[in-house]
Design brief:
With 330 residues, this protein is of the alpha+beta class. The protein has a domain of 89 residues: NAD(P)-binding Rossmann-like Domain (Rossmann fold, 3-Layer(aba) Sandwich), CATH 3.40.50.720. The chain has 7 helices and 14 strands. Strands 3, 4, 5, 7, 8, 9, 10, 11 and 12 form a 9-stranded mixed β-sheet that branches. A hairpin with a 5-residue loop joins strand 13 and strand 14. The longest helix is centred in the last third of the chain and has 21 residues. It starts with 24 loop residues before the first strand and ends with a helix. Bound molecules: flavin-adenine dinucleotide. InterPro entries: D-amino_acid_oxidase_CS, DAO, FAD-dep_OxRdtase.
């Protein structure tokens, strides 16, 4: 639940920003539907804990010939999909590139203070009369009888993230974790910065995200496939902090290294990756007493669950409405 910090709940650990990466696809890219809503919240709803940030994404000269570097090439084309979505998208001139960087793009993004945003979302539900209950289900069909009315629900929406790997009735073996480790610091660079690679291996990355409303600044990171370890690795923590300062020197006072960081905590979150990408799909399953139950799945958002959230939710709502119409007809 919002307010909990648990390894089985990825959302609190995210930066979270709207950034470059392969855009989630399911028909229309989900990000296309999501950006306008995040932009509206950042503009009109300060209580949601989302603010606009200038975001700079660098390609290191060392990455020119690797997969990430080649992928970056697409960002330098004027008609690329991010340039169409994100305001103030531009290619930085060479004169503004730090040493060791070959190219960079800059754009307006948002950074979400997840510690404020997740409880705010729960409050939005309460405001419109949603009854929230806490519980663990071992089989997806149990969710239908968990409904507060005491009657089975007409439809179940399954948003259990990585847990759909083991959840009875779902057991989606294409899910796997990508472990992300972060340091949350009090320093406020007032910008989002990231780069294509690191000297510490392809599983590690460097990003700096300054959250809204005193939420601290998130330094990352890594993406370790099939790694379930919930405790931060202290050596990785040092590498993350050093790299963040190299990439974004304004994080710390001049002349300072990691001793210039004021650390709130080091933490780990598991991204709910799925081999085939996100699953937003309707399915009819059978309860233990052989009753049909409509389930709409919405899980497997990997490292892009915030930036695809409203697009994904819209699709899931459409599927629920279709299911209810089918039920009304039969
Ligand atoms: C370090 C890190 C950085 C990230 N940065 C970004 C970013 O900058 N931008 C971005 O867009 N995304 C980012 N992500 C990805 C994003 O956080 C996830 O895609 C997203 O949070 C997934 O949300 P979810 O609701 O699907 O899953 P979760 O947040 O994991 O929620 C699953 C929920 O299901 C519940 N649940 C599970 N099993 C059961 C059960 N059996 N019974 C009852 N309840 C159950 C859990 O308790 C939990 O509440 C990042 C992730 C990490 C780890």
């Amino acid at each position: 639940m919002p307010g909990d910090y648990d390894i089985g709940y990825a959302s609190p650990w995210a930066g979270a920003d709207f950034s470059m990466g392969p855009i989630t696809t399911k028909g229309k890219p989900l990000e296309l539907e999501t950006w306008p809503e995040l932009e509206r919240l950042a503009r009109d709803k300060p209580e949601a804990g989302i603010h606009f940030q200038e975001s700079i994404y660098y390609r290191r000269t060392k990455d020119l010939d690797n997969e990430k570097g080649r992928w970056f090439e697409g960002l330098l084309k004027e008609d690329n999909q991010f340039a169409k979505i994100l305001p103030n998208y531009r290619i930085l001139p060479e004169s503004q590139l730090p040493a060791d960087m070959d190219a960079a793009v800059s754009f307006t993004s948002v950074c979400i203070n997840t510690a404020l945003y997740l409880p705010w979302l729960a409050s939005q539900c309460l405001k419109v009369g949603v009854i929230i209950r806490r519980g663990i289900v071992s089989h997806i069909s149990e969710a239908a009888i968990f409904h507060h009315s005491g009657r089975p629900a007409d439809a179940v929406v399954n948003c259990t993230g990585l847990s759909s790997l083991k959840l009875g009735g779902v057991e989606d073996r294409t899910l796997y974790p990508a472990r992300g480790q972060i340091a949350l610091v009090r320093n406020e660079p007032g910008v989002i910065v990231s780069s294509t690679g690191t000297d510490d291996g392809p599983d590690e990355s460097t990003y700096v995200m300054d959250r809204a409303a005193g939420g601290g600044c998130v330094l990352g990171g890594c993406s370790l496939r099939d790694t379930w370890e919930s405790q931060p690795d202290p050596n990785l923590a040092i590498r993350i902090m050093k790299r963040a300062i190299e990439l974004c020197p304004s994080l710390v006072p001049p002349g300072k290294g990691i001793e210039g960081l004021s650390v709130i905590h080091h933490a780990v979150g598991l991204r709910p990756m799925r081999a085939g990408g996100v699953r937003i799909e309707k399915e009819s399953i059978r309860s233990s007493d052989d009753e049909p139950i409509t389930v709409v799945h919405n899980y497997g958002h990997g490292g892009a669950g915030y930036q695809s959230s409203y697009g994904a939710a819209k699709l899931a709502v459409t599927l629920v409405e279709e299911a209810l119409q089918d039920q009304a007809r039969s």
